[in-house]
Design goal:
single chain; mainly alpha; Arc Repressor Mutant, subunit A; 6 helices; about 55% helix; globular; disordered C terminus
Length: about 160
């Protein structure tokens, strides 16, 4: 077996194990989104409203699994069903204001946790790591035939390019 590839497999297993990046020791800290809600809300935030079928395709999950997840997120006030803005038959899910607030709060917590973990890294080391990790993710997406949308880069004023607010 190729030793560097085996080492990479082990390290990616550990990375997935960590789950949340905050320094909390609880499984899902009180008030935090579970991992599936965090990822679904992040995807909808990037792509806009999505149907069960679109979410199922995006996550490579059975529609019944996505239906259970979105139902739980609607009950929690994170998502709402809306008519297709493009006039299609399928109803779509849109993030509620509460969902957006919780997603952004969790993201800020994750960024703060990463900042603590990486506090001894140089800016160049962090940049290099992001570049390699992004390439790794894009290569996985290419192999799966499904690219994941990326946020637009931040502008000097701190807003994301394309933000209207």
């Amino acid at each position: 077996m190729d030793e560097p590839i085996s080492a990479l497999e082990f390290e990616t297993m550990l990375l997935a194990r960590h789950g949340y990046l905050s320094t909390s020791r609880t499984r899902i800290p009180e008030g935090r989104l579970d991992r599936s809600a965090y990822v679904v809300l992040s995807r909808i935030e990037l792509d806009g409203p999505m149907s069960i079928g679109q979410l199922s395709d995006a996550f490579r999950l059975d529609a019944s699994t996505v239906n259970r997840q979105t139902t739980a997120m609607m009950r929690a006030g994170l998502l709402q069903r809306i008519p297709d803005p493009d006039g299609g038959i399928a109803r779509k899910f849109r993030i509620t204001e509460q969902g957006r607030r919780r997603l952004h709060s969790d993201r800020e917590t994750n960024v703060n946790g990463l900042s603590q973990i990486l506090r001894d890294w140089t800016a160049a080391e962090i940049s290099d790591f992001v570049e390699v990790l992004a390439r790794f993710n894009r290569d996985i997406e290419r192999a799966e035939g499904a690219a994941w949308p990326r946020p637009l880069p931040a502008t000097p004023a701190g807003k994301r390019a394309g933000d209207e607010s």
